[in-house]
């Protein structure tokens, strides 16, 4: 009955899903939009003004920067879930992971040389937000006791 109502179903492997997620993030420069925005533009339903894109600096200077950013995004997603569930242990674990990456001087130097907007796409920026959110959560938990 379900197949009759929904039609054919396709299961996507975790590798393919990861690749699609990476392409979305690189296209939209965030992980919050889905492919529907892209499809609406592609189908001509939504139209944006024409513009000329001048690339003056690459977002990721090397593949390792992209992979580090993706790893940081995964930690940020875990801390978001932990904050939603008030899971103090998991928040502490994420803070420790972020802190260990922030104490790496090589990583910090690469993000300081970026343009301000592009620094949002560095692992250092994401890890600093994880620590900030985690500490804010722990402070609010401590004050409620």
Structure characteristics:
mainly alpha
What would you say this structure looks like, in words?
65% of the residues lie in helices and 0% in strands. The protein is mainly α. It has 2 domains: 1-54, no CATH class; 60-145. Helix 5 packs antiparallel against helix 7. 12% of the residues are buried. The mean pLDDT is 82.
Structural class: mainly alpha
- Figure out the total of helices: 7
**Whole-number average pLDDT?**
82
How is the main sheet built?
A: none
- The total of beta strands comes to 0
Based on Cα principal axes, name the global outline.
globular
What is the helix/strand order? Answer: HHHHHHH
What Rg is obtained from the alpha carbons, in whole angstroms?
19 Å
What distance separates the N and C termini? 52 Å
- The helix content, as a percent range, equals 55-70%
Number of domains: 2
**Uncertain runs with pLDDT below 50, 5 residues or more?**
none
Question: What portion of residues belong to β-strands?
Answer: under 5%
List the helices and strands and how they pair.
Layout: H1 2-6, H2 14-28, H3 35-42, H4 63-84, H5 88-102, H6 105-112, H7 123-143
Compact summary:
By secondary structure, the protein is an all-alpha fold.
């Amino acid at each position: 009955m379900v197949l009759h109502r929904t039609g054919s179903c396709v299961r996507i492997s975790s590798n393919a899903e990861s690749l699609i997620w990476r392409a979305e993030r690189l296209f939209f420069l965030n992980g919050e939009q889905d492919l529907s925005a892209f499809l609406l533009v592609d189908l001509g339903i939504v139209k944006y003004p024409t513009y000329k894109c001048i690339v003056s600096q690459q977002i990721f200077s090397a593949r390792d920067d992209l992979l580090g950013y993706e790893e940081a995004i995964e930690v940020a997603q875990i801390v978001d879930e932990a904050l939603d569930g008030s899971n103090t242990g998991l928040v502490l674990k994420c803070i420790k992971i972020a802190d260990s990456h922030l104490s790496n001087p090589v990583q910090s130097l690469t993000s300081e040389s970026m343009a301000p907007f592009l620094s949002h796409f560095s692992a250092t920026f994401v890890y600093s937000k994880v620590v900030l959110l985690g500490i804010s959560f722990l402070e609010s938990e401590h004050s409620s006791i």
